[in-house]
Amino acid sequence: xxxxxxxxxxxxxxxxxxxxxxxxxxxxxxxxxxxxxxxxxxxxxxxxxxxxxxxxxxxxxxxxxxxxxxxxxxxxxxxxxxxxxxxxxxxxxxxxxxxxxxxxxxxxxxxxxxxxxxxxxxxxxxxxxxxxxxxxxxxxxxxxxxxxxxxxxxxxxxxxxxxxxxxxxxxxxxxxxxxxxxxxxxxxxxxxxxxxxxxxxxxxxxxxxxxxxxxxxxxxxxxxxxxxxxxxxxxxxxxxxxxxxxxxxxxxxxxxxxxxxxxxxxxxxxxxxxxxxxxxxxxxxxxxxxxxxxxxxxxxxxxxxxxxxxxxxxxxxxxxxxxxxxxxxxxxxxxxxxxxxxxxxxxxxxxxxxxxxxxxxxxxxxxxxxxxxxxxxxxxxxxxxxxxxxxxxxxxxxxxxxxxxxxxxxxx
Length: 412
Ligand code: 9MR
Hints:
Layout: H1 2-15, H2 31-34, H3 48-51, E1 55-56, E2 59-63, E3 84-88, H4 90-95, H5 99-106, E4 109-112, H6 118-121, H7 131-142, E5 146-154, H8 160-163, H9 168-189, E6 194-201, E7 204-209, E8 212-217, H10 221-226, H11 229-241, E9 246-251, H12 260-274, E10 281-284, E11 287-288, H13 297-308, E12 313-321, H14 330-348, E13 353-358, E14 374-375, E15 378-379, H15 397-406
Parallel strand pairs: 3-4, 3-13, 4-5, 5-6, 6-9, 9-10, 10-12, 11-12, 12-13
Antiparallel strand pairs: 1-2, 7-8, 14-15
The structure holds ligand 9MR.
The site of ligand 9MR has 8 residues, from loops.
C-alpha cells in the first residue's frame, strides 16, 4: 500500500507542478504503518488499482484498463484495426530474437530508423546499397505491414560527398537522382509496401533574437544551393516517380499551434499547398515528456485541425515519452501511460490522422539511450525508458495507455 499512497501524493504534486524525481523512494521509513498522513490519507481508495482508473471520455461507463492488467495473446496494437508503426533497426532484427516477433505481433507499419537515410543508401555518388533497407521492407511484406520511407532529403546523416557539392546544377542532379532511384526501387520491387515517404525532414530551425524566436530555413547544402525551392522540387520529383505514394513533410517542435517554428512550418506547408506542390501530409515527430505540455493534447488537436483544414493528412511519426524529467517510478510510468493516451487520442480522433508511430519498440532500443538522462553537467541515474515495452519486451503501463487510445478510450 505504501507505493500507491505515495503515488497519489506524487501525482497531486506533479499535476500542480511541484514534484521532483523519485519521491516514492524518499519516503521516511515506517511511514506506511504510522497512519499519520492526515488529509492526503483520507483521500485514499482501498485498492491500488482504483487509484489509476479513469473514465473513458467517449463512454463514461467504460473505465481505463488497469495498468498492470495482463494482456491476452490476441490483444495487440494492430488488432485494433488502426495503423500503428514502430521505428525498426535491421541489425536488431537479425540479432535479437524477441524483437522481430514482438514487432510482427503488435505493429502493422514500420519506419526504417536509419537504413533509408542518404548516408546508408547512397554512400558514394550513384552507388546505392539497399541491403539493410530491403531487409526491413521484406520483413514488413512478410508480416503484412506497410512501411513509411524515412527520409529522402535531410541535412543530417548525409554523406560527405553530398555536403561538399557546390553549385545548383550539381546539387539538383544529386537530389533528383537520389529521390528517383530510391523511390523507384521500392515502387518496382515492393509494390504497395512503402506507402508513404518523409520527403523532406526538419528543414526549419529557430533563430533566437532579442525579440524572441524566428523560424528560418536550416542551413544545408540543399538550401544553400537551391534556396527554399528545394522543398517543392523534392516533392515534385518524388510524386513524378511514384504518384501513388503519400508524401510528407516531417519535423519536431511543431506539434503545438504556438511558437515561431510551428508558425513558420504551418506557413511554409500552407504555401506548398497553395502552390499546388504534391504534398499529402504533415508528420509530427512527437518526441516528448510525460507532462501535458510541449504541446498539451488540446493544443496538438488544434494544430492537427489546421493542417486538416489545408486538406492534408497528419501522422504522429516518431513518438516517445522520455521519463528523464520524472524517473521511472510508479508515478513516471503512470504519467507516461496517460500522456501516450491523450496525445494519441488527439491524432486518432481526427479524420485526417493516417497513422501513429512509436520511435522504437523496447526501452533498451531507444535512441534516447545514446545520451541517457544528461542535463548540462549532470547525468541522472534514471533512464529515458520512453517506449511501450520494457527492456525485455514486457508490456509497460504505457502499452495500456496506447491500447486504450486505439480502442476509443481517452482517459479523463
Ligand atoms: O533514432 C535515430 C538514431 O538511431 C540516429 O542515431 C539519429 C541520427 O540523427 O537519428 C535518429 O532518428 C531521428 C530521425 O531520423 C529524425 N527525427 C529525430 C530522430 C531522433 O534523433
